[in-house]
Fold these 4 entries.
Entry 1:
Amino acid sequence: MIYVGIDDTDSLESRGTGRLARTIATELTNKYEIFGVTRHQLFVHPDIPFTSHNSCAVIHAQAPPTAMEEIFATAKRLMIEDFVDGSDPGLAITSSEHITPAAVAFGQDAKSMIVAQERALNVAHNCGIHVEGLGGTNGGIIGAIAGIGLASIRNDGRFLLKGKNRELSGLRSVQEIFGAGIDQILTLQGESVIEGKIRILKNATPSFIHGKAVLFVEKNGDSIVALKRA
């Protein structure tokens, strides 16, 4: 697996890290199979510049390591084309075999504390992660590297893109949801939902748990409603 970490540290004028990551993933599908795009929540603190939620995104590409140079070039081109003054984008890439516990620890720390660019660059250097800042302060390299560490454990964040999940809205049958790329449907109490219909208010954004896309729902009277998890 190749992981492409993106943090646009978007400004109010930009379209946002998640949408940019989906655009890049769509471009990459012309040549490579995309497992999904995940969103990972990072630490929210007044000393950390962000527009709304301080999250990063990771594209999971099922491609050989020899494809990394081309994938990186594609992502970089689209990010530069999308650059808006005031943003501080960062881009990182590596393959699964290069991800070490230090990269995972960096990602986990970035969820709960302020981490510096210097540490991010040291982690990237020591763990074989290729990273570039693409404008402004280059602060997005922190989220790009952290995202890769978090995505690699396959147990953090939620899917911005998984199969056809973004086409799911309104009242949908469980079988439609499974067919769109969702692996499991659970209530917060742990009950498995395998039949019936579920109301999806906008689009299905399943959580990334144990390598699976898990859609959480809650029962509301006679209805079952999909939940959006962080």
Entry 2:
Amino acid sequence: MHKSIGPALLVLLLAVAGVACDSGERRLEATPAATPAATPAVASEALRLAQQAVNQEAGYRLKVDAQNLVIPQWGGIDGAELKIGTEGPVVSGTIDRTGDGRYQVRFVDGQTYFKRETCGHWARIPGGGRDVLRPFLWTETYDLQDAVDPQYVGKLEIEANVGELGPSRIELDGSSMRPLRLKQQGDAESIWTFDDWGKTPDVEKPSGDVGDQGPGGNPC
């Protein structure tokens, strides 16, 4: 369940408001919220609040549209739809591996399991694959809070260097400070969208004999 971040959000709102004097009375004169004129410090505070908002949720859904976005121990992907639970964390969903088809994936107890859509069995990433989904696990990496060189480029849109993604533009929800959308920029491009906040996926280790392999090659 989403928890209020009211006091911290108030600090941000005050930071992007102008204080003016009129007839001897002090009043807040609202400037366009989160405009390019806002300082990097304000942009950094906004991303800190966004990180806090993500951390406070039980889970969310992430959709990724990409072209050969490289993730650890897996290679390139052209898309993904993942349900992410922040406690653990745990992940369940699908990944489209570049040039290789769609895979079901699960991340539970620090290990990554997968099943190609043409296969009848699950396998484990060799060594456990703890880092395969790391770029998507912001409650583990704190990539939002630790983003480098943030600056406003529009109303509640911030450009910054985000973790392994590098230059990215992040759109935030003005009422909750949760991320709505991320667009990776530069040589590699991907678009991430976030929704279904507050839902924890039910993820269990695949049953039966699960050996280490792949992905890729001839998994079946």
Entry 3:
Amino acid sequence: MWVDNKRPLYLTHRTKPRMMVATNWRPEKGKDLRPFPWGCTVWLARSAGDDLATRLFRFLIDHFEPAFGSISTEEDSRAKHFVIWQDRLGRAEQYMGLDVGRFVSVRTDYGREVLPGVYWITYFGLGVKRIVGERNLERLEADKVERLGDGYLVRAYPSVSAAGTEVARQSEGNIVDRLGREHFFDKAQVDIEALKTDEVTAARVEQQIQEIRAARKS
């Protein structure tokens, strides 16, 4: 149904452990030029624990054979990918760097292909091993590294409960350094000025807002 109707699929597990699942595909925007144009996101209650989260992750990898995957906390994801800025239209915010592909920030092309990052558990699938090099993954030193399907499952530290801590950041940073920092998204490199709406666009948007308000009053 998801493929035939070209609509995202949403699932909810209402009993414990609570869980929401969403597929992300944007056919309404026309041909998607990203090398991997869809994703599956699961929001799993922390009460599920590390073991169940890992089992679910492995299940998804077995069935979807993804290019890339990860497990982390919402707070950790926001810290690494949520960008906030102020422009002529006011406060703006968005997640960035969650896709596999060229690191592009609106008008700025950083000229390289990157992966989202390294997290508590990160999966490097067949489609992205070439970016960091399979030999580097084979020799990687981490809390745990194992082959899974056509890729590698890398655990940076024993439990997701440590995500966002200084120890976790250090462990993730060590893996990034060994695989090549240039291969991963870095929020600090986002060009905030390039994200800001220019004066002409801001004026056009403001005019459209006024026209919509006027139409509603009439």
Entry 4:
Amino acid sequence: MSTETLSDLYADELRDLWSANDQMTKVVGAMVDKAHDPELKESLRQSVTGIQQHADALKILLKEAHKTVKKEHCEGMAGLVKEANKHMSHELPENKELRDAVLIAQYQRMSHYGLAGFGTAAAYAKALGKEQEHAKLTAIVRDIYRGDKYASKLAEKAESAAA
């Protein structure tokens, strides 16, 4: 797609995030089965639901922006997903607490990508005078940040248990 205006750039960011969310949903769903800690399992399950809701919001935002409602493959998330899958397939430790720490680290890497992308999309929406869209995107950023903060607490718990 041609990017000639900030509006085009905004739509490109939304399409990229949609793809990123779809990719992340699959790998986080696989993490649920590999996690040991019940709190982590539940957090990951809730994350899958949240990520799917964020993807649905992106589709609505594209439609409201009168842009093509079609995702573009996100290579950045593809790399993070590839790395997460590598860690989940051959490199998971036998120690369950360490395994949870590995899963959390991979989850947080992907979440941080989302924070950057949604934060950028929110800034573009604000610059374009799209106050409602800005508010929706900012709410998603807060939601992702809450999940990331909780994941950090679980990582500290897993790391101290494994020590």
